[in-house]
Amino acid sequence: MEGRVAQGRLATGTPPGAPHWLDLLPSALIGAALVAAALAAYWLPGSVRIYNHFVWQAAAFLNGQAAIPWPVPGNNFQDFFPLTDAAGNLTGFGLLPFPPLPAIVLMPFVAVWGLATDERAVSVVIGAIDVGLCWWALGRLPVDRMVRLAVTVFFGFGTVVWYAAGLGTTWFFAHVVALAPLLVAVGLALRADQAFAEDARPDEDDLGPAPGPSLGDALRGAVAEVVAGLRSPLAFIDGRQFAAGLLFGLACTARLTIVFGAPFFMLVGSGGSLARRSVSAGLGAIIPIGILLAYNVATTGQLIHPGYEYLYQLEANGYPALGYDPSWAIEDIRYLPQNLGIMLLSTPAIFPSHALDAFGGATTALCTAEGAARGLFDPSCPIAMPRAIGMSLILTSPAYLFVIPALARFRRSRLVAGAGLAVAAIALVNLMHFSQGWVQFGYRFSNDFVVFALPLVALGIARRGGVGLVAGWLIGASVAVNFWGVTWGNLFGW
Q1: Where does the pLDDT of residue 215 fall: very low under 50, low under 70, confident under 90, or very high at 90 and above?
Q2: Phi, psi dihedrals of residue 69, rounded to the nearest 5°
Q3: In Å, how far from its chain's centre is CA 264?
Q4: Is residue 379 part of a domain?
């Protein structure tokens, strides 16, 4: 650890052996400052949005029911599942197909302020808390405080977490709520695991793959351990890993696709073996996920909410410009090519001649005045405009590139393997989904895997020598681009 700390100090201009100024500050003070900065940034003036589905859902829960009055004059309940009677007539009620944790979080506020509850204000506060939790969760990683601070800044201000928390409408609020228990779950797993001492070593220190048991031997050993654990199940369960799994499952009741991050908790955390970690975390996670499935059955009669298929057909048939095929499944591998294009390749409109609609089509002519100068935030004559369909993850948050050097230890680090598999699994499922989260700035589905990507970004920075010129530029660029995107989102009223 001393070698890594000294290396990080050299990268930030601090002589070896001298305490870095960050080391002299209480950790809680740094965390509080980050939360305060996030509160200020997320509360920047924004346009007024009317998508507050979860406020209405919270009110319904407080009235002892799941159904929400629908339609409601003056409310645009987009992404809503109307209920009909046996004859196909509207009943005056509908269901929100999304998992209910965000509505449950809002219930105390709705109990006081009713339907006037400001969902955006709650989103801003929870988003700022998420930033503080990120600082705490990264505290167990084998990186110095400057790397930890840099990655927390990247999370809070250099990813679309900023846009989601500051916007606070239905779909984005769900992400913000899911992040809190997920950050705590990952933090608990990291703090309980003691095997990460070598994960931040510089590349030149690598000695090649360490010998170990084959995959078949490892799986056979895990099965044998589970069978042996059946004889004394209580002793087999690790309490800390169970708690991490419980919080992980809770996050899934806000954003269901997070469930595909399970490999992280199989490979990282307390328990001492793959079998104990997996079973302990799995038993914890199944409690909230089981409650969610029971909720779906109680309200719809089905395990998977039928509202998703209803909305898929509605959107696929109603917006042909988006390229959805209603004959395909809602999760379909054939959507991968176009969705990968959005996630990795979509660019802003540079020196546009016309304004763009939500589908990327040209509308009003721009820069019509003779000799008009283009501006960074001038809707009538811009230098560049984001695309509502989404933008490249690498363009909006280029510091994600530090995941690449971290993956060099994929075969020899449980942390790197678990985080990498979690990111890949969540991303794959989201990329097979017909919609990629529009209207949006950037790629909002990245919020589902950002927490698992953060340790990789931190380890990648550490392995490249700490927070030096490259890391500073990439994180600074991430923050600048996201400020640009948040500002344009407000200008557009997205």
Answers
A1: very low
A2: -55, 135
A3: 15
A4: no
Kindly give, in sequence order, each residue whose CB lies less than 8 Å from that of residue 66, ignoring residues fewer than 6 positions away.
57, 60, 95, 295, 298, 299
- CA-to-CA distance for 184 and 38, rounded, in angstroms? 18
Please check whether residue 73 lies inside any domain of the structure: yes
How far lies 147's CA from each of 93, 410, 421, 491, in Å? 51, 20, 23, 34
Secondary element (H or E) of residue 362: strand 362-365
Domain-located, residue 72: yes
Higher pLDDT, 57 or 85: 57
Q: Is the peptide bond before 71 cis (omega within 30 degrees of 0)?
A: yes
Predicted confidence at residue 357, as pLDDT, reads 79
> How far apart, in Å, are the Cα atoms of 115 and each of 5, 58, 71, 306?
51, 9, 15, 26
Cβ-based burial of 246 (10 A; exposed 0-12, middle 13-18, buried ≥19): buried
483 has pLDDT over 90: yes
Residue type at 304 in one-letter notation: I
What average pLDDT does the segment 210-231 reach? 58
Rounded to an integer, what distance in angstroms lies between the CA atom of residue 29 and that of residue 22? 10
> How many domains does the chain contain in total?
1
What SS3 state is found at 159?
coil
Q: How far is CA 106 from CA 37, 61, 125, 251, 310, in A?
A: 24, 10, 12, 15, 26
As to burial, measured by CB atoms within 10 angstroms (0-12 exposed, 13-18 middle, 19+ buried), residue 65 is exposed
Nearest CA-CA partner of 417 in 408, 428, 430:
408
> Residue 101 burial (CB < 10 Å; 0-12/13-18/19+)?
buried
What does the block give as tokens for 43?
């509360």
> Which of the 8 DSSP states describes residue 445?
G
Give the domain extent around 244.
Answer: 2-203+218-348+386-492
Look at 214 and 202; give whichever has higher pLDDT.
202
pLDDT, one tens digit per residue, over 390-435 is: 999 999 999 999 999 999 999 889 999 999 999 999 999 999 999 9
Q: How much is the mean pLDDT over the chain?
A: 88
Neighbouring-strand partners of residue 354: 365
Is residue 405 helix, strand or coil? helix
Q: Which of 289, 291, 282 is nearest to 262 (CA)?
A: 282
Length of the chain: 494
Q: Could you tell me which residue, 97 or 19, shows the higher pLDDT?
A: 97
The answer to the question of residue 252 being in a domain is yes
| CA distance linking residue 81 with residue 60, whole number of Å | 15
Q: pLDDT per residue over 14-40, tens digit each?
A: 444 455 778 888 999 999 999 999 999
